[in-house]
Write a structure and sequence with these properties.
Length: 211
């Protein structure tokens, strides 16, 4: 038995699945809460993952529930079923307890990685892993320095001076001449303007640059 269970998983299952999982709860590496779709109320912010039983997918509430629920969803499915939308991963019957443990842990590890690699900046998503700035279905490719610039400006609560940007982003590198910051910000602004028709993302004043 595991003494520490930091992940909370809500299982919305058929009676058979709920009964089966209830018998092995002590062997799971996560805290499992069993429920039926009629008794579930959103938002589900207390949970890390929702385990959905394929056998209840014909329930009139389930498709809307799956579409509107933004936390991770793991589907318990049969191998002969077609892909069903609105879930991140699936596990096929019959499965061992270790398989379920590993699926839940892996799914939440991916979530943690994505959370740490993306930042919401106004109307945009800065994806540091893909090196892109995204809005809706459009994006621009970013250099490593552009990513560092955007992240720095976003985290600052007030405008930051050019000399401080040089110190933090370029570490006063010998390649950082007096126009390095201006040049990089000009190019980044141009990319944003051309793709998103937005010339207000990065602001400049006497007190420095800001977002």
């Amino acid at each position: 038995m595991h003494s520490q269970k930091s992940l909370k998983v809500l299982c919305i299952g058929s009676e058979d699945l709920n009964n089966s999982l209830n018998e092995v709860k002590e062997f799971l590496n996560f805290d499992l809460i069993l429920a039926k779709i009629d008794s579930v109320k959103k938002p589900l912010t207390d949970y890390d993952t929702v385990l959905i039983d394929e056998l209840i997918l014909d329930h009139p509430k389930i498709k809307l529930f799956l579409k509107d629920t933004r936390i991770l969803k793991l589907l318990v499915s049969s191998s002969n079923k077609k892909k069903i939308p609105f879930y991140e991963e699936k596990i096929t019957r019959p499965f061992a307890i270790n398989d379920l443990n590993n699926k839940i842990i892996d799914l939440n590890s991916k979530k943690s990685f994505l959370k740490n690699s993306t930042i919401q900046i106004k109307k945009y998503i800065l994806d540091k892993n893909e090196k892109k700035l995204k809005k809706d279905h459009r994006f621009i490719d970013l250099t490593e320095k552009e990513i560092q610039l955007l992240e720095l400006l976003f985290k600052q609560k007030k405008p930051i001076l050019k000399k401080n940007i040089l110190e933090i982003v370029w570490k006063y590198s010998s390649s950082a001449d007096t126009h390095t910051v201006e040049t990089h910000i000009y190019r980044l602004r141009k990319k944003v303007q051309q793709k998103f028709s937005d010339d207000t993302l990065i602001k400049n004043a006497k007190t420095g640059y800001s977002i």
